[in-house]
Each structure stands twice: as structure tokens, then as C-alpha cells.
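Dear colleague,

Following up on yesterday's call, I've attached the two folding results inline so they're easy to grep. Please treat them as preliminary; we haven't cross-checked anything against experimental data yet. The first protein's sequence and C-alpha cells come first.
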Amino acid sequence: MTLRIVAVPYRYDERNTGLGLGPQALLDDGLLGELSDAGVDVAEPVFAELPDEERTDESIAVNIGRLGAHVGEQVATACGAGNRVLVLAGDDTASVGVISGLQRASGAGHRIGLVWLDAHGDFNTPETSVSNLLAGMPVAILAGLAGPLWRDAAMLAATIPTNRIVIAGVRELDSPEEQLMRSTDVTVLRHAEALDGTSFAAAVTRLAERVDEIYLHVDLDVLDPSLVPSSSTPSPDGMTIRQLDDLLGTVYATGRVGVMGVAGLNPGGGKLGDLSVASMQKLLVAAVPKWTREGGEGT
């Protein structure tokens, strides 16, 4: 089984700045070679880009959506022939494009589930957000609670019902965000619950029973800041690489993960950035072979 990599070197709609440097930093650090050495049949990466002529000065959200349409195109193409697809994204906003691509590949009626591993809920809307950061909104956008212009620009054909969303590893939620989340059917597991040995596996099992495919998304700030010290959104008392790897293995074991996305790598800051890159590299080299190995766990 071939692993196709889609790189999205953007922070919001700005190319190769800040978090947008993360995907290339991983590739420059030898990710493809390390995955190949670990037994993964990995193809050369493709890059999703936002052409200058598609940009608007009026709305960053629309630009993010238009970039997402190109992400979706690359994901849909890469999903062909049963390939696994790894999306290396600058920030979490690329996830709307990923879901658009899965729908494009399999149809709007394809029942997609979302497992979102993050220190934050990313379930804000413009009405609940304290910071107004768009990277804190993509799960709510996918659920259809905000952002119609963003969704339309990304060519998202259908929103994700909230009973098909599991958010785990959360350590920080804005109060209005949490109130909104608790009013839906989203399954929310805070850090301790995700690691208690039973709650996460039970939530993932329930999700797998009601969907055709799972998009598995990881924001690196779910890890402890000591492992990703250059994180733009650090949150204390996070996971170890081993703990996160175990959770990923639980999701892979459903056999329903077609696409995995990782976001939030800030390679800047000298040695701090280097350590963050090394942590992400270690995680992917440990986790991805389990996912792609034919006849192995989750297949």
C-alpha cells in the first residue's frame, strides 16, 4: 500500500511563513527516507497551493477556503487506488479542504467521521471566540455551525454531523466554546479521559460503527511543550510521544482511517524548532508504518 503525502505549506493563506514552514522542514529533515527505511512505500509529495489570481483582499476565510479547494483536489487524487494519504499542514484550517477532498473522492453521501487530537477544541465560532483566531474554528466550520463562505470556497459538499466527531486530548477550552460543544453530540475527552485506558477506545469504536471512513487529525500541541517547545499554542501537561502513538494505533485498528493530517509544527526558534521537528519526525516514523502496513493493525 502506497503512502501519498500532500503538503500544505501555509499558515492561513500565507505561504511559507511561520507554521507554513513546518511541512517543508519535515521533508528537509528526511521524513521520506525515514519512512521508507521503516518499510513504508512512500511516493514523492505533492503541494497544495493558492494561485495569486484566486486571492481576495476582502476575506482571509475565503482565501483559506480557496486554498482548501486545492487541498481537496490533491487529497481526492491521492486517495485513488486505495492509497493512504498523509497531509502535512501548516495549521488546522487545512482540515476543511481535506474533508472536501474525501467527499470529492467518494461522494457527498460518504459517511466521514472525525477524530481530532488537540490541546484545544477548535470548536469556536466568531460569536464564541475570545481571540478570533481562525485556527480555533475548523471543527465548528466542518460541523456547519459557522463559516458558510469558507465552506463554499473549499467546495465542501456536506457538513459533518456532530455525532461523528470525537475531540480528544483537550486541555484548554474557552467557556463559550465549551458551552457550544456541550450543546451538540460531539464526544469530548479531556486529556486525562483520553489516556484513562478505556474512554478513547470506546469512543472510537462507537464512531467506527457509524461511519464509512475516518479522518484522523493531530495538532502537535496535544504533545507536552517539552517535546514541541517552539509551539505557537503551547499548553502545559501534554502527552508523551508514546501516549499519542498509542492513541493513533487505536484509531488505525478500526481499519477506517484513509487520511491522516498533522498540523502545528513551528520549525523556527533555532534549537527549540529543531527539537519540535525531531519530535514530529519521531511520532510519524513510529506511527505511520502501523497504518500503512498491509496485513498489519487496522487493515
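Below is the second protein, in the same order (sequence, then structure):
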Amino acid sequence: TGLIFGIPIWALALVLLVTLAVVFAVLLILRRNRRKKEAEALELQRQSEESQRDLDEIDAVQEDKGSPKYHIEKFVDKNPEAAAALLRAWLNE
């Protein structure tokens, strides 16, 4: 009594439970790996976008070298006293 195909029912139940536990564990591991890969992909995309923004800023700065604002800022950085004197002269006029 209690045999299926000559195997005790408790042994079949045990095999079934172990099989279900293994399947569940494999699914959890696969899900975790998928999430980890997605997080890495998002991080790489974020870094790529950041790098592109940095390159765009560098390009913008390089393009601005011909602008009067760039030259004025450069003059003020190199000659703050002369810039102050020039401003005083303009204000006095």
C-alpha cells in the first residue's frame, strides 16, 4: 500500500519537492542575473550620455574661443588690474 510504480509515495513527494525547489532557485538566479545585466546596461548608457555631454561642452567651449565674451574673460583673468582700470575709465566717462 502506498506505492506508485513500485515507489513509495513519500519518496515521490520528496523528489517532487526537491525538483520544485531547484526550479524555483534557478528562476530566482536567472531573474537576479537579468536585473544585474539591465542595471549594468543602464549604468553604461548613463556614463555614455555623461561622456557625450562632456564632449558637447568641450566642443561648445572650443567654439566660443572666437567670441568676444571668451576674449574678455581671458583678458580679465590675465590682467585683472588693467581690466579694473578700463572699467573705471568707462564708468568715469
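For the second protein, one point worth flagging: The mean pLDDT is 88.

Best wishes,
A.L.
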